[in-house]
Structures are given as structure tokens and as C-alpha cells.
Write a structure and sequence with these properties.
Elements lengths: L1 H28 L12 H19 L10 H14 L1 H4 L8 H4 L15 H10 L15 H13 L5 H10 L22 H10 L15 H6 L3 H6 L19 H15 L3 H6 L1 E9 L2 E4 H6 L1 H10 L2 E12 L2 E14 L2 E16 L2 E15 L2
Parallel strand pairs: 1-6
Antiparallel strand pairs: 1-2, 3-4, 4-5, 5-6
Helix pairs in contact: 2-6, 3-7, 3-8, 6-7
The structure holds heme C (HEC).
Length: 374
């Protein structure tokens, strides 16, 4: 028995020794072709693929995903993506790039494929060894990386025109001048009037706590405020900003928003609920409610509150994002609170999704601030 084990140990040692010598010879001899144009054999590729997938999965599965439907976050991500990612990951309407063509592994076309948010976040932050995918977390904070993740969730549904439109509206960034598609140089004055229109379309959209919102992006870039602007990461309680909204950008979605307002004001519960998607989330003063919770609680309160109020629409605008759209509006509500006349300025951000040919509201965010009285 003892003899047997000894015999085995010797065999194993010899085999290991031969393997080590072989590996050493392989590494030192120069026999391996490291060229990116010499692709891995199928078994090697399969092993690396499994290693990659399991490594990423193990490291990303506990990452907590923030609200990725925040339009400001998506818009910021559009600018980041256009500035740093398109040469490898392309954009709608572009099939390849000179740099990408020669890369191995080939960077996936992110305008065609969607990567799960947790994995996308981890990969963008940490990069992938020996692949050419950089670790953007080295010089970008987490909110900026989440902005790209949020944008990437929308990108595969976008047309080339929608993509360009979003990038043109994105907040200016220090490295934005790298790839702006055909609108190259836009943020440096090229199509500045378009942005200026955007702002002019939405009078009063400038929120007090974010005094730069009204700036055209071109101006923001020119006066050196660009960085500050880009770093204004959206927090949960940040004032809703209407940046990027343009009157009549998505007329059908705006019509739904207006029908929603009319239904609320006239106390038509059925009409209100008909416009809400089954999984709608409604957030008011930091509190998030489901459709059921809203229908059985706050909806009646809102109807009662608005019943005798005078509502003046200050501005309304929208922004297309693939198969979804955002509609933003600001209204002044004159009412009586505790017997005294009061005026509130109410800001509303709706996220709508096309359901067949109708748009349904999938999320609502409301904020209001007293203007006088209350
Ligand atoms: C120099 C080229 C290059 C640039 C620039 C680049 N990437 Fe990548 N990226 C890659 C490569 C190559 C891969 C594939 C790596 C692999 O599969 O092993 C990759 C993979 C990814 C993946 C995972 C895709 C999947 O299907 O799992 C995501 C997400 C991603 N990159 C996002 C980004 C973002 C966002 C940017 C811009 C901030 C960016 N990349 C910039 C080369 C690049």
C-alpha cells in the first residue's frame, strides 16, 4: 500500500515537472503569437469566456442599482458615452469604426445589445484585463458611471436621430469634444441656437437650487462652468430639472400628460387611472407609491386639493428616449391652504412608455415649492 502511494507521488511530480518545463519553454521561446489579429482557438476562447463571465458575475451581483429612469442621469450618460465610448462601442447608424475593427476581443456594439445594469456598472468601473476595455472608475465617480449605465439601458432602442438629439442636449463635459457624431463641435458653438431654443421653449424652467440649468450648454462650456455642470450628480432629493426638454419633441406623450392634468383637475378618477401603467411608480416628497397605494390613498387627496385650485401651466416640454419619453412641466397652483390664499409652483416629471400605440405613464415625480401664501 505504502509502496503504491509512493509510486503515484513520483508520477505526479514528474508530470508536473514536465508541464512546468513545457510552460516555461512556451513563455520564453516566443512561439506564442500575441498579435490581436491571431484569434484564440475555440477551447481557449471558451475557457476565457467562462472565466470572464463568472468573475464579473461574482463581483457585481451585490451591487445596488439606483433609479436609472432619472432623465438627468440618462442625459448626462449620453454625453459621457458620446465622448468616451463610441470609437469602440459604436452608436446607432454606425456599423464599425477603424479602431474597433482591429480589436480582439471585438468590443460589443452597445447600440444593439443591452448589458444588465449591475454587470455594466462593474465592467465600466473596473474595465476588463487584456481586452482594451479601460477601467473608467480610475477617473470617474460612481454617479458618472451610473449615468452611462442608465443611458446604455435606453441606447438599443434609439434611432440615429434620437441618439444625436440626446447627445446634443447632454450637459457639457470636459471630454465631450471627442466624438459628437455629425454634430461634431456642437458644444463649442456649432449648433448653439438649437440649444438656445430648447431653453427658450421652456421659460421658467430654471430651478432655484440649480441656477445653471437655464444656461445653454454651449455657453456653459465656453464660460468654464462645464465641469461643475457635468458633476452635478442627481441625488434623490435634487430639484427636478427640465434640462433637455423641448416643447413638442414628443407631441403624443405631451398630449397624454395634458390629458392626465385635465383628468386630475376635473376629479375623473377613471380617466386618471387609465393613463397609468400597471407598474407605475409615483413619487411625491420623497415617498414612492405603487398604483394601488396611490389609487386607494393620495389620488383622492390630490383631487380634493386641486378641485377649487386655479392651475396655470408655466411650461411643458418633452424628450424622446428610445421607446420611452419624458414629459416635464411646471405649473402654478393657486389655492387656499388653511383658509388663506396660497400659490405653489409645482414641477412634474413623467416617464412614459409606448404600449401598443398609446403612451402610458410609468413614473411620476412631483415637487412643489410655495411661491406665496403657504
Ligand atoms: C478602446 C476600446 C474601448 C473603449 C474606448 C471602451 N470600451 Fe467598453 N469594451 C471594450 C472591449 C474590448 C470590451 C469587451 C471585453 C471582453 O468581452 O472581454 C468592452 C466591454 C464593455 C462592456 C461589456 C459588454 C458586454 O457585452 O458584456 C460594457 C458595458 C462597456 N464595455 C462599456 C463601455 C463604456 C460605457 C465605455 C465608455 C466610457 C467604454 N466601454 C469604452 C473596449 C472599449
Amino acid at each position: 500500500m505504502k509502496q503504491h502511494i509512493k509510486h503515484h507521488s513520483i508520477t505526479v511530480a514528474v508530470v508536473l515537472g514536465v508541464l512546468a518545463i513545457g510552460a516555461g519553454a512556451f513563455v520564453y521561446s516566443g512561439i506564442y503569437n500575441i498579435g490581436a489579429d491571431d484569434h484564440h482557438t475555440k477551447p481557449v476562447f471558451a475557457v476565457m469566456q467562462t472565466l470572464r463571465e463568472n468573475s464579473i458575475h461574482a463581483r457585481s451581483r451585490n451591487i445596488v442599482v439606483p433609479d436609472l429612469d432619472d432623465p438627468q442621469l440618462i442625459l448626462k450618460g449620453a454625453g459621457q458615452y458620446a465622448a468616451m465610448c463610441t470609437q469602440c462601442h459604436l452608436r446607432p447608424g454606425v456599423e464599425n469604426s477603424e479602431q474597433r475593427e482591429g480589436m480582439y476581443p471585438l468590443p460589443p456594439n452597445l447600440s444593439k445589445a443591452r448589458v444588465a445594469p449591475q454587470e455594466a456598472f462593474w465592467i465600466i468601473k473596473h474595465g476588463i484585463k487584456m481586452s482594451g476595455m479601460p477601467a473608467w472608475g480610475v477617473n470617474h465617480d460612481d454617479p458618472t458611471i451610473w449615468s452611462m449605465v442608465a443611458f446604455l439601458q435606453k441606447l438599443p432602442d434609439m434611432t440615429s436621430a434620437q441618439y444625436k438629439d440626446m447627445v446634443a442636449r447632454a450637459p457639457a463635459d470636459h471630454d465631450m469634444d471627442m466624438d459628437m457624431g455629425e454634430k461634431g463641435g456642437h458644444s463649442h458653438g456649432g449648433a448653439a441656437d438649437e440649444d438656445a431654443h430648447g431653453a427658450a421653449d421652456m421659460p421658467g424652467m430654471q430651478m432655484p437650487a440649480k441656477p445653471e440649468s437655464g444656461h445653454s450648454h454651449a455657453a456653459a462650456a465656453a464660460d468654464g462652468h462645464d465641469h461643475e455642470h457635468a458633476e452635478a450628480a442627481p441625488a434623490v432629493a435634487a430639484p427636478l430639472s427640465m434640462e433637455g426638454m423641448k416643447a413638442q419633441a414628443v407631441p403624443a406623450a405631451e398630449a397624454v400628460a395634458q390629458a392626465f392634468h385635465t383628468a386630475l383637475h376635473s376629479g375623473d378618477r377613471t380617466a386618471v387611472l387609465a393613463l397609468l401603467a400597471p407598474d407605475v411608480s409615483i413619487s411625491e416628497g420623497g415617498q414612492v407609491q405603487s398604483r394601488e397605494a396611490y389609487a386607494s390613498g393620495h389620488l383622492s387627496e390630490d383631487i380634493a386639493f386641486l378641485k377649487d385650485a386655479k392651475i396655470t401651466l408655466v411650461s411643458l416640454g418633452s424628450m424622446p428616449m428610445g421607446d420611452t419619453a419624458m414629459v416635464g412641466s411646471v405649473s402654478d397652483i393657486q389655492t387656499t391652504i388653511k383658509g388663506k390664499p396660497a400659490t405653489l409652483r409645482s414641477t412634474e416629471l413623467l416617464n412614459l412608455k409606448k404600449d401598443g400605440k398609446d403612451w402610458k405613464i410609468v413614473s411620476i415625480q412631483w415637487q412643489s415649492t410655495p411661491v406665496s401664501g403657504a
